[in-house]
Amino acid sequence: MNILVCDDDREIVDAIGIYLNNDGYTVYKAYNGLDALSVLKDKAVHLIILDIMMPHMDGIQALIKIRKNKNIPVIMLSAKTENMDKINGLTLGADDYVTKPFDPLELIARVKSQLRRYTTLGSMENKENVFTTGGLVIDDERKRVTVDGEEVRLTPVQYKILRLLTANAGRVFSIDEIYEKVWEEAAFNPENTVAVHIRKIREKIEINPREPKYLKVVWGIGYKVEKL
Description:
Elements: E1 2-6, H1 10-22, E2 26-30, H2 33-42, E3 47-51, H3 59-66, E4 74-79, H4 83-92, E5 96-100, H5 104-124, E6 130-133, E7 136-139, E8 144-147, E9 150-152, H6 156-167, E10 173-174, H7 175-183, H8 191-205, E11 215-218, E12 222-225
Parallel strand pairs: 1-2, 1-3, 3-4, 4-5
Antiparallel strand pairs: 6-7, 7-8, 8-9, 10-12, 11-12
Helix pairs in contact: 2-3, 3-4, 6-7, 6-8, 7-8
C-alpha cells in the first residue's frame, strides 16, 4: 500500500514516514497542497495524510481538488485551534482527522482502519445485496457483517434484525414491526425479546454500546440504524 504524507513541517513528515515504513507501507512525501496534487498525478496512492495549514495551497483547497476525481481515504492533520477547518474538511470529504500533537501509534491505527474499510468497500462496490452505512457493511449474499473491515459474528436472529435496519438506514422501525418482520409472526408483548437482541448486536458492532454510532433507539417509537 502506498501512502502520501503531506505537511509543511518536514520533521513531522519524516517521523510519520518512519512509522509507516516500519509497518510495510511505501511513503510518498509532499510539503504543500500543490506538491500533493503533483504526486497524485504520477503515483498510485491508496491513502493520504493531509495537513490543513500549509503554504501555497492548504489542505482544504487540496482536498477539494482531490475529491473531484478520487475517493481514496484522506486523514486530515489539524491543530487544536483549527476546529472550523476540521469541520470543513469532514464536510468536504475527509474520512478522519487527527489533532496535533498526536500519538504516532494512534495515527497508524487510524490509517489501518481506513485502508481496511476502503479495500473492503472497493471489493464490494459492484455487488448487489450489499448494505453499507459508515464502516458497517452487510454482504447479504454471503451473510457476512463487517465493521471497519473486521468481521462480526451474529446469530441468525441478530443478523436478520441488523440487515432489516441497515437495508433501511435512517428509517425508524417500531418494536412490533421488527418482531413481525424478523420472527414472521404477530407481535405479542415483544419489547423484552427485541431489546435483548438489540443489546447483543450493539455489544458486537459498537465501540461503545452505551453511546452507539450505528444502532440507535428513538425513544417511544423504536429503533433505527443511522444513515452515515
